[in-house]
User: Which sequence fits this backbone?
């Protein structure tokens, strides 16, 4: 059986600006080859990485420079192999030195070590700042926090201090080269091993107080919400992302946004062959419309929610390519939700529904918003138009030409 690694990675800080950096956004949408959604720690969404997955971007897109002098890194991990590997790494421009990173060692005699790499700017080789011995984590979830404060590295398990070590470092924070890379589940070209793991990882500034505050908050929140979460976990997770999208949508509407594209194409990665084989050649090359496509036009490093909302507001229309795969996709669901916000809130005729295949009423039953849109709007059917593709594309052209105002 092929081993796969699953990870859910988030970087954040308690800076006054409440900056939140989420490394899962390195993955982007549509998902790259060998990466898929899975159920992660405590039921939260996570990612599965196949052997060919390779996720990395420029450090400057995600991490402040200079970096925090005191910080905490919290990890929830469930390795699916005993070989260990890199959880995350920030490398120099040549991908030869790990400036900051965490790895787990191979399991030996029922235990393994968690290693913190911290290499001062200008050093000629990767430096190991601390190494802590832990029990074998393979096949089970474990949560731990590493804090760096001054010349000390501490390991916390379940918010209680487990061990501490001293280390030597410069009195200045880390700085990164313009071409420095940040990687999840691997360390670029350094030669350090990739990881096979389910993973959650967060980073915050000013380590120890963050650990204590988070610990207290977790206890209170757990007591108050455990029952609710047990019965409604997916609804709560989805509601959070939807609220975040709605608030960002309101912000973009107030700011106003010039139309850069004629249409944003919302589709599932399983339907990508049809989109690039049929839709793009017809609409872009023959009809000369300017389309916004996930893989080609989304900004690397920007949060997925913001990329989606920016795409919707910078396009005159949103064209939803609906199929069974589309209905099963959380990101596609968010895209049609946000396009609906604009449709009903701004009173603009911005939504085009294109059904790639015939879907029964039973298949649409769980999707209230799509059923409502289908009942109230004319939609296009590729399956019904197979005998006359020219007429189908003529209808798409008319839909794109129609003005935006509903009133």
Assistant:
């Amino acid at each position: 059986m092929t081993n796969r690694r699953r990870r859910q990675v988030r970087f954040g800080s308690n800076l006054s600006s409440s900056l939140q950096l989420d490394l899962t956004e390195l993955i982007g949408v549509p998902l790259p080859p060998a990466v898929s959604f899975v159920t992660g720690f405590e039921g939260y969404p996570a990612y599965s990485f196949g052997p060919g997955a390779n996720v990395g971007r420029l450090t400057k897109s995600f991490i402040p420079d200079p970096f925090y002098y005191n910080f905490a890194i919290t990890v929830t991990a469930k390795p699916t192999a005993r070989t260990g590997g890199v959880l995350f790494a920030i490398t120099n421009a040549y991908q030869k030195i790990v400036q900051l990173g965490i790895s787990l060692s191979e399991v030996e005699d029922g235990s393994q070590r968690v290693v913190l790499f911290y290499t001062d700017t200008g050093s000629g080789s990767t430096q190991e700042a601390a190494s802590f011995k832990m029990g074998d984590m393979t096949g089970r979830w474990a949560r731990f926090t590493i804090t760096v404060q001054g010349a000390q590295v501490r390991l916390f398990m379940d918010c209680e201090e487990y061990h501490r070590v001293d280390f030597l470092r410069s009195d200045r924070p880390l700085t990164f080269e313009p071409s420095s890379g940040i990687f999840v589940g691997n360390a670029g070209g350094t030669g350090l091993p990739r990881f096979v793991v389910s993973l959650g990882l967060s980073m915050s500034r000013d380590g120890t107080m963050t650990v204590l505050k988070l610990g207290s908050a977790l206890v209170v929140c757990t007591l108050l919400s455990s029952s609710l979460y047990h019965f409604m976990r997916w609804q709560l997770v989805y509601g959070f992302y939807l609220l975040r999208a709605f608030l960002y949508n309101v912000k973009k509407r107030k700011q106003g946004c010039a139309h850069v594209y004629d249409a944003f194409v919302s589709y599932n990665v399983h339907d990508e062959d049809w989109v690039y084989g049929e839709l793009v050649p017809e609409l872009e090359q023959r009809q000369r419309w300017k389309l916004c496509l996930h893989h080609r036009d989304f900004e690397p490093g920007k949060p997925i929610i913001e990329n989606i909302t920016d795409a919707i507001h910078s396009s005159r229309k949103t064209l939803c390519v609906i199929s069974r795969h589309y209905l099963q996709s959380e990101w596609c669901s968010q895209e049609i939700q946000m396009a609906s916000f604009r449709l009903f809130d701004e009173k603009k005729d911005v939504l085009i529904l294109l059904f790639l295949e015939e879907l029964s009423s039973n298949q649409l039953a769980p999707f209230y918003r799509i059923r409502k849109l289908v009942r109230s709007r004319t939609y296009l059917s590729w399956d019904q138009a197979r005998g006359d593709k020219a007429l189908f594309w003529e209808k798409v052209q008319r839909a794109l030409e129609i003005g935006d105002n509903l009133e």
About this structure: The first strand starts at residue 5 and ends at 9. DSSP finds nine helices and 21 strands in the chain. The chain has a mean pLDDT of 76.
